[in-house]
Amino acid sequence: MNCFKRNKIHSISYKDINIIECNNCNKCYRFDNIQEIILCNNCDKYYCCGILGECIGKKCKYLINDIYISGRYCMNCAVLNENGECVCKDCLN
Questions:
Q1: pTM for the complete prediction?
Q2: Residue 90, H or E segment
Q3: Residues 85, 56: contact at Cβ < 8 Å?
């Protein structure tokens, strides 16, 4: 991760382990501020930017607490259809 300064020695506390990095812009976030981060449903990488959106395909609908939720995908794992809607690569096939 690029979250720490290079070429310097740092003492790492237990709090530093709770840092995640955006796979697109390399910005770092703490887990207690995770509402700004999205986990791609396909590649399992974290993103604060570079997310294409929620897939409209039927394979990506999940029923959680009586609410249907769609998987979210990064730009590498989904495409936009002719209507500008996100469709993951699994739902394209």
A1: 0.73
A2: helix 89-92
A3: yes
